[in-house]
Amino acid sequence: MEIIYHGHSCVQIVTGDKSLIIDPFLRGNALAVTKPEDIKTDAVLLTHAHMDHILDAEPIAKANDVPVVATFELAAYMSWKGLRTIGMNTGGTVDLGFAKAKMIQAFHSSGIVLEDEQRIVYGGMPGGFIVTAEGITVLHAGDTALYGDMKMIGDRHSIDVAFIPMGDHYTMGPEDAVQAAEWFGAKLVVPVHYDTFPAIRQDAEAFVRSLEEKGIQGRVLKPGEQMTVKS
Q1: Nearest-CA neighbor of 184 among 213, 218, 228, 209?
Q2: Among 20, 38, 63, 127, which is 20 to 30 Å from 153 by CA?
Q3: Contact by Cβ (8 Å): 189, 154
């Protein structure tokens, strides 16, 4: 399995000649090195409805003629844009053929802010995903605060790689993210959702050192960087 980090919370999982991309946010991210038109994928997965997670879902899904997987409400919103969608909800699993994606809970908010209309469209409950393929389990926590059931999730799943937000302000900060990493029990933890905006500037290398002090392997990925994961 190959995993590409596109910056912010955007992660692409490649298995064989197939791939899925989670929370594509490229045009709005000054740190991103990839453009939406460069993405080739077979599914777009969305953890929640905030713009820094869904901005490029429409162009990528249309260009690749692939479905958008999201909560029932967010999937309905995307279908109104002419996209193929798979609506689901927390606790459910979608079989994409080449991978399975289970939606787990996240403690956050979820809505689409329409500035021109001064209106907010409800986006359903926020979540994260546990993706399994090739005997490998990848957890994307979505945007979330720390919550106790992370330990239950870690107890029930053998997680190879966990992508955990640690930018603070909008999600967990580094200290809580270290606790989340302990509870998830992943073999490798990669920090996400930091540095994109001034409010979430963090020292990712310091976070990894904090993980290592707890006996947890961490790795910082730069936008556009790829890593190989073996079962």
Answers
A1: 218
A2: 20
A3: no
